[in-house]
Amino acid sequence: MTSKLRDIQTAQGAVFELPQAPPLHFGNDAAALAAVTTGAVLVDRCHWGILEMTGADRLRFIHNQTTNTFTQRQPGEGCDTVFVTSTARTLDLATVYLAEESLWIVTSPGQAQPLMDWMDRYIFPADKVALANVTKSTALFSLIGPSSHALVQSLGATLAPQAPYGQHELLGDLGWRVAVGSGLGWSGYTLFGPMDNADAVWQRCLQGGAIPAGERLWEQWRIQQGRPMPGAELTDEANPLEAGLWHTISFDKGCYIGQETIARLNTYRGVKQQLWGLRLSQGEEPGAPLYLGDEKVGRLTSVVDTASGVLGLGYLRTKAGGEGLTVTLGSSTAEVVEIPLASRGYLAEEASASAPDS
Q1: In this predicted structure, what is the pLDDT of residue 355?
Q2: pTM of the model as a whole
Q3: Are 281 and 297 spatial neighbours (Cβ–Cβ below 8 Å)?
């Protein structure tokens, strides 16, 4: 983050928890909560990671490194994909944007360098692939809400209102890219470009009617929506199928790191746990075990206190059940609820088939 951007945000009421951290809040949570469904909210995500991949083999390489398919995609497209280990344990959920001569890979906070180091292990001398960590020189914002489309049009975007997720274009006068998708389940856009003029882009978004929101609300929204994060839901104890990330996986593309394990879990219906939302009666610490009666059936991974109650995410054994179940943890109870961002593959089909007729 540049000092200019930070100064502007401070003048707008931003409170920072740590010197290099994004704004925690702007003292306007009620207004931002309303605007996310009625207007437009602007969130600073400059602390997220960004990698640039160049070279003639870049599409083949990312195709072989992650769960989604890339070799047939064209510049201007983008999609979510997951980096996994050879045993399909999750490293990170990333978004990849295809440009004419490069790929832009947006990673979770703190994950750009670890993923770059991970991929470096698989780049051989004959591979025409080069990686650069451009996190410090590239700014990243999210616009969320139904007024976001009109706002990006005012910045010069020509994307159609119903453009597919990940489609993106370059805003010529700014040198920034605008991409469909806010990083959450609501309609919106992701904007990224040179850190040098991040303050100008931030100001233009606010002048267009956006309301700033900080990390406190982003964390609330990502738990409410069910976006998994490294160190919480994305760990060596879970795979992408368990994390509700079926939409990021191609089951037809052939070999990639972790492919055999993921294919086997799908073919033999071997998903043993699933990520769910939780409505807790009171706050608990992440890591707390979830019980159904006297049986341990899962664990709490994230929790946040909101104006409407305590929300959480947690993994629950598939055989224990899902939405509508009540579990206990510590001195609390929790109702298991669906999360908008989760996709469940054959598990959703099985749940639908077993549901009682209404």
Answers
A1: 63
A2: 0.96
A3: no
